[in-house]
Amino acid sequence: MAGPEQPDEGATPRELVLEASRRDNVELLQEVIDKLSKTAGPKSTERVAEVLNNAFDGVGNHALHLAATHGSYEVMDLILDQEGVEVDPIDRFERDTPLHKAVRFVNSLPHYKWEGAKMLVNLLIDAGADPRVRNKAKLKPADLVDPANNDLRLTLRGAEYAMIAGDDIVNLDDDANGGAGSASDSD
Description:
Blueprint: H1 13-23, H2 26-40, H3 44-53, H4 63-69, H5 73-80, H6 98-108, H7 114-126, H8 141-144, H9 150-176
Helix pairs in contact: 1-2, 1-4, 2-3, 4-5, 4-6, 5-7, 6-7, 7-9
């Protein structure tokens, strides 16, 4: 029989993922991923993605939402490194994506810390987060940016533009090079 210091059951992998996300505890998250990978065998990639994608708290914040809310850069980076992870989950309360939460995190900091915290936003954008998604209030992440933070607003607007015109920009680059492709294609 378990005493007060020895519960009958330990925390579930989902609970551990959420705790790691809140506290930027990359070691705990890596432990969970390793254990899931070991026990799932050949389906380890799918199992890890399933746990990460379905780990959410009572108000629908997924692991990436919590990592963004708390500025947990290292945990966010490790989550985004996992194959099959959804980068734009929507929370149930505000209908925010992790990118919305990351912008709010940057806004909560003193101005002199904005540049460093912008790494959270860049990490999500680089992983494919869509800056065009609107939340319950019909706001995109760029609409939430502190008016004094022009750099972050320009980053998000640039990401929006890149998503809208991405294929056209790639095609224009190919045309400008005479359709020859990249320099690595040449002999």
